[in-house]
């Protein structure tokens, strides 16, 4: 059984996240999308809202044989991965600028849980500049983000700023 977690803030989920999920599906039997509960970071969406968005978006993608689950966690990613008996942590790399941060995290996670390997997948070029933070910033300032986040996410962001 090859079980992986794909941890992240997902505040909000982007098409870049979906691209990484799609690429990881053929590699594992089970993937847990692990949404970090990080209220101190003052997220736009609560962890429940982020999980709910993922739950609505994910059925739209062709998942094949892989079992895809959504969960949230607090504390260390490495602890969560061990508790879930995962053997891999999936992370997406967009550009060389991601590398240093990801390398530090991967090495620290390896030190914490030597049996769990971090697997890096390269995002599609068209999403190489897409991050949740950039999407929020552009959207809040009235810019267009269609094609970069799922339509449902755009709607939820619109609801947020109208409330
Ligand atoms: O989507 P993000 O914000 O880039 O995800 C970052 C995340 C959630 C993977 C990272 O912040 C994390 O693992 N946080 C949990 C706390 C932890 O394990 N910190 C040590 C990492 S070595």
List keywords for this structure.
163 residues; alpha/beta; 6 helices; 40% helix
Number of helical segments? 6
Our measurement of the CA-to-CA distance between the termini, rounded to an integer number of angstroms, reads: 45 Å
What overall form do the CA principal axes indicate? globular
Give the helix/strand class. Answer: alpha/beta
Quaternary state of the chains: single chain
Query: Which percent band covers the strand fraction?
Result: 15-25%
How many E-type strands?
5
Strand order of the largest sheet: 3-2-1-4-5
Name the poorly predicted regions: none
Q: What gyration radius follows from the Cα positions, in whole Å?
A: 15 Å
Mean pLDDT over all positions:
96
SSE run? EHEHEHEHEHH
Hetero compounds: 4'-phosphopantetheine
Q: How can the largest sheet be summarized?
A: 5 strands, parallel
| Helix content range | 40-55%
What does this structure look like?
With 163 residues, the protein is α/β, with parallel strands linked by helices. The protein has helices spanning 15-24, 47-57, 77-83, 96-112, 132-140, 151-162, and strands at residues 3-8, 30-36, 67-73, 88-93, 117-122. Strands 3-2-1-4-5 form a 5-stranded parallel beta sheet, with helices on both faces. Strand 1 (3-8), helix 1 and strand 2 (30-36) form a beta-alpha-beta unit. The mean pLDDT is 96.
In short:
The protein has 163 residues and is of the alpha/beta class. Helix content is 40%, strand content 20%.
Q: Layout of helices and strands, plus pairs?
A:
Blueprint: E1 3-8, H1 15-24, E2 30-36, H2 47-57, E3 67-73, H3 77-83, E4 88-93, H4 96-112, E5 117-122, H5 132-140, H6 151-162
Parallel strand pairs: 1-2, 1-4, 2-3, 4-5
Bound molecules: 4'-phosphopantetheine.
């Amino acid at each position: 059984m090859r079980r992986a977690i794909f941890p992240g803030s997902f505040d909000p989920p982007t098409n870049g996240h979906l691209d990484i999920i799609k690429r990881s599906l053929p590699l594992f039997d089970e993937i847990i999308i692990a949404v970090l509960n990080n209220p101190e970071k003052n997220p736009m969406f609560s962890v429940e809202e982020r999980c709910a968005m993922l739950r609505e978006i994910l059925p739209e993608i062709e998942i094949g044989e892989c079992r895809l689950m959504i969960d949230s966690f607090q504390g260390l990613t490495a602890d969560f991965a061990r508790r879930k008996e995962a053997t891999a942590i999936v992370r997406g790399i967009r550009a060389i600028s991601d590398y240093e941060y990801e390398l530090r995290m991967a090495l620290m996670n390896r030190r914490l849980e030597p049996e769990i390997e971090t697997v890096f997948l390269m995002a599609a070029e068209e999403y190489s500049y897409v991050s949740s933070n950039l999407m929020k910033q552009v959207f809040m300032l009235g810019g267009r983000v269609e094609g970069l986040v799922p339509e449902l996410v755009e709607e939820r962001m619109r609801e947020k700023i109208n409330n």
